[in-house]
Amino acid sequence: MTTSKVTISSLNEQKRQGLKITMLTAYDYCMAAMIDQAGVDVILVGDSLGMVVMGYDSTVPVTMADMLHHAAATRRGVKRAFLIGDLPFMSYQVSLEEAIRNSGRLIKEGGCDAVKLEGGLEMAATVKAIVKAGIPVCAHIGLTPQTATMLSGFKVQGKDAEGARVLMESAKALDEAGAFMLVMECVPDAIAEEITRRVSMPTIGIGAGPGCDGQVLVSNDMLGLFEKFTPKFVKQYAKLAPQIKEALTAYATEVREGVFPGSEHSFKMNQDELKKLKS
Question: What is the rounded CA–CA span in Å between residue 141 and residue 152?
């Protein structure tokens, strides 16, 4: 880990040297600051906030307003890491003009260094247009949560030869369109490794095996904060939810019993001034 600002050039150099790239999600100042201080290379303000922060059943309801609000908060906690913001569902599919406009908002108003969008071959022209406007784009193929319904749910993609061929063609098209990075979600490890060899941009896996140039996880998942479900590809490095609930229960109990706040948590008034007040 270096202390210098992470850039597209330094990420490309990591791929060239075979140094794994680390990425985690963040949605607020506090978490972003901790991830940044831990030396993680890339922070993603993911539209996964719809599920782990806002309580939706999917990422579909997330709006540009949601993404801008959380991106700006996250930006304030980041000093070293490269910051990517997700383009939410229907913020880039309607037209190239709208895709460029909303990408620009994530950069200007959200403070992001780049944007991410989902889709393969069908999104190559959109990626090219956004890049031409001077905005770096991270592409995302495989399981694309925004369109999971079309994919028949949250399932591994590219398990058969035809599906794998489509993924490879998509990766090539997105690379040629100018994407600087590619996220592959729920893709067989052999396919992800082959795509990594074929494309010039760094690849980031999430449920795509160790052959990618780097890895990303949702922070709430890997910290054990989100208890609704845990994807198979997630390794929980901590189980914080039970500890937090225990602390919250202890707080409520101490307040009810008059234990908290104690004298050490209270402010005192000068006794002479207090006497004046009482007189």
Answer: 15
Active site residue 122: no
Q: pTM higher than 0.85, yes or no?
A: yes
For 226, residues 6+ apart whose C-beta sits below 8 A from its C-beta are 51, 52, 218, 220, 241
- Distance between alpha carbon 27 and the CA centroid of its chain, in Å? 8
Question: How far apart (Å, rounded) are the C-alpha atoms in residues 206 and 42?
Answer: 14
What is the four-CA torsion angle of 210, 12, 196, 192, rounded to 10 degrees? 50
Residue 53 DSSP SS3: coil
Mean confidence (pLDDT) of the chain: 95
First vs last C-alpha separation in the chain: 65
Report the alpha-carbon distance of residue 132 to residue 3 in Å, rounded.
30
Give the tokens for residue 277: 């007040």
Structure letter (DSSP) for residue 178: T
Q: Count other C-beta atoms under 10 Å from residue 14's C-beta.
A: 18
Question: If DSSP codes are grouped into helix, strand and coil, which group holds residue 208?
Answer: coil
Catalytic residue (choose from 176, 185, 194, 246): 185
Query: Between the CA of residue 191 and those of 78, 134, 140, what are the distances in Å?
Result: 33, 31, 15
The per-residue pLDDT for 91 is 98
What H or E segment, with its residue span, contains residue 139?
strand 137-142
Is residue 45 packed enough to be buried (19+ CB in 10 Å), middle (13-18) or exposed (0-12)? buried
Q: What are 109's two structure tokens?
A: 């108003």
Q: Does 261 sit behind a cis peptide bond, omega within 30 degrees of 0 on the bond before it?
A: yes
Question: Angle at which helices 96-108 and 124-132 pack, to 10 degrees?
Answer: 50
Of the listed ranges 153-162, 176-185, 220-229, 250-259, the one predicted with least confidence: 153-162
